[in-house]
């Protein structure tokens, strides 16, 4: 529940039960600006009186904060008035027309880039082939080249880039250092620092995160289950990893290594895993277990289409493989459901085209293995965000930092 402290002059504080506590009035004002901006994002069109009534901030404070957000071109007046009981009100909506958030996803054979506006509208979606597997330097050069082109495009559209977040398939610590990305062959790499150098200190923040974490943020903000406060996203690539959102927040764990469900051992005598152990979920239910061949990433898409064709035609061997993979996946999903009790577990990547065959098996396992009735209310669904969910999540992470008070233009003067 929101409550207000410290009345008057835009220095009134809205507190919530979570989140950092501001240290001084500048922080208080930044926090309140963020509260108002979030309210407009969620409730636009809305009036200043609506904001005051819902946030507990007084009307003078709201007027001052709204004026600041209009100055920063984060909010604008629609010019429309709405007749209600009482006097007509000027309605507010998100502006954000001079801004863009960029997300980039590094895959083994491609880089995806997404740019969105402040309200999450897609401005650009690009995918380029990439050979990041060679070395970190070459990888950074390739990513830097695509980011430079995205930034140039945004600049041409007279948009200021708010930030960039890069998704990497691997262990990324809380500082954003890539500890190990096995499929890229990268380890102990400061991709964010290297990218900043490659882009010659571009003047916007660069963040680096695990691909599953960012895909989970994309689902939370843009997906079919957006707004779910307890959500798990499961990547379905060669690797299987989980991005975990609990109580509305991404949970990275102490050092940033949470969500490695792919290396939970399901069978000590199972197939060998990339990590060198045996019978990991990833070895039994990753895409490698469906295709059972050592394919280049470029070939996987074609092979998956063939699997879908065979499954549709009722090919017994294909259906048996999907049944077995679905069973292993269901055991992994049941561990997540027993441990975390999420509202929804979202299957991404190559699980999406295979979902018609995997989901019924997974749901059966869930019903058998979760101790809470009705699987603890946990649904398992296929992602609707497509293959660039993690890139979109990069943009979502940039927008999240705006929502949490890191507004463009810095913290405004105290009145
Ligand atoms: Zn493993």
UniProtKB/TrEMBL annotation:
The keyword Transferase applies. GO terms for molecular function: DNA-binding transcription factor activity; kinase activity. Belongs to the ROK (NagC/XylR) family. Residues 36-77 form the HTH marR-type domain. It holds the Pfam family MarR_2. Keywords: Kinase, Transferase. CDD domains: ASKHA_ATPase_ROK_BsXylR-like. This is Sugar kinase of the NBD/HSP70 family, may contain an N-terminal HTH domain. The keyword Methyltransferase does not apply. InterPro entries: ATPase_NBD (IPR043129), HTH_MarR-typ (IPR000835), ROK (IPR000600), WH-like_DNA-bd_sf (IPR036388), WH_DNA-bd_sf (IPR036390).
